[in-house]
Amino acid sequence: MTVEIHTSDAIGSDGSLTSPATIASYAVRNAKLTAGGKLLAARLPHGCKRYMRLNYVVSGTIAAGSVTSGLVWDVQADMPDPVTATGF
Q1: Cα gap 6→22, rounded to integer Å
Q2: Tens digits of residue pLDDT in 37-70
Q3: Given its phi and psi angles, is residue 83 left (phi above 0), alpha (psi -120 to 50 degrees) or beta?
Q4: Which of 21, 40, 47, 60 has the smallest C-beta neighbourhood within 10 Å, fewest atoms?
């Protein structure tokens, strides 16, 4: 699975980002895909514009599940920044 952070200055009438740019990309190992598990925790990279979205791409087969994301004040101490980040 790959998790990407996209950003843009504007959104369209349908709520989608207009000309989004990928500002970070994180590889997540399939072993992290467990019920109730944490996929990643990362600081927002420099270059964020007014609007952002989290996009994930699944490679291979996953039976079922859901992903919940959110913004918090800071990354928790028990979740180090991912070392597989690219796109900065």
Answers
A1: 4
A2: 777 777 777 778 999 888 887 776 666 667 777 7
A3: alpha
A4: 60
CA distance 86 to 88: 6
Best CA proximity match to 68, nearest among 47, 42, 38: 38
Q: How confident is the model at residue 71 (pLDDT cuts 50, 70, 90)?
A: confident
The pLDDT confidence band at residue 76, using thresholds 50, 70 and 90, is low
Q: Which has the closest alpha carbon to 42: 2, 79, 87, 86?
A: 79
> 24 and 87 in contact (C-beta within 8 Å)?
yes
Q: In this structure, what is the dihedral angle of CA atoms 9, 12, 13, 14, given to the nearest 10 degrees?
A: -120
In the chain, what's the furthest Cα-to-Cα distance?
Answer: 40
